[in-house]
Amino acid sequence: MLTKEIRELFEQVPTMALATVDSHGIPNVSVIASKKIIDSETIWTIDTFHKKTLDNINQNGQVSIALWKDSLGYQIKGTAKHYTEGVIYEKGKEWILKIKPQKIVKGVIEIKITNIYHLTPDYNLAGEEIN
Fold first, then answer.
1. Domain membership flag for residue 86
2. Is 53 within a domain?
3. Which of the four, 33, 54, 64, 73, has the lowest number of CB atoms within 10 Å?
């Protein structure tokens, strides 16, 4: 699902917006900076400061990521799980501590991608799903 162009933008942007929603439909957005593409359908991000985000993920797991640079952007939708132990947690912690040795790792959020859409402000592309 992650094209070469999306992967390149993902690596270029320093931060992205991560949106969640609670069981009452109230949205929440947080900023993620510690992020990694695992494969074409999986993204990891590190939990250091999340509170409402984790509550929402634990309630329904539906997430949306917005990433953009200048006039190029994408929305990635998926299902998230939060890990505080086990293989995913240990591998995620090992990865981020190599890059940021002082990072506090409370958990690893794994996002399984379900859909990707254009955010590019173009009358023909905006909102179109990328297959």
1. yes
2. yes
3. 33
Q: Which two tokens stand for residue 82?
A: 């939060």
Q: Rounded to whole angstroms, how far apart are CA atoms 115 and 124?
A: 18
d(CA 6, CA 72): 10
Q: Which residues pair with residue 118 across a beta bridge?
A: 74
**What secondary structure letter does DSSP report for 52?**
H
Structure tokens at 23: 């069981």
What per-residue string of b and e applies to 44-53 under the rule 16 or more CB within 10 Å gives b? Answer: bbbbeebeeb
- Provide the CB-side half-sphere exposure for 124 (13 A, CA): 0
**For 34-72, what is each residue's pLDDT tens digit?**
999 999 999 999 999 999 999 999 999 999 999 999 999
Predicted confidence (pLDDT) per residue in 88-104, tens digit:
999 999 999 999 999 99
Is 124 inside any structural domain? no
36 close to 7: Cβ distance less than 8 angstroms = no
Quote the pTM value: 0.94
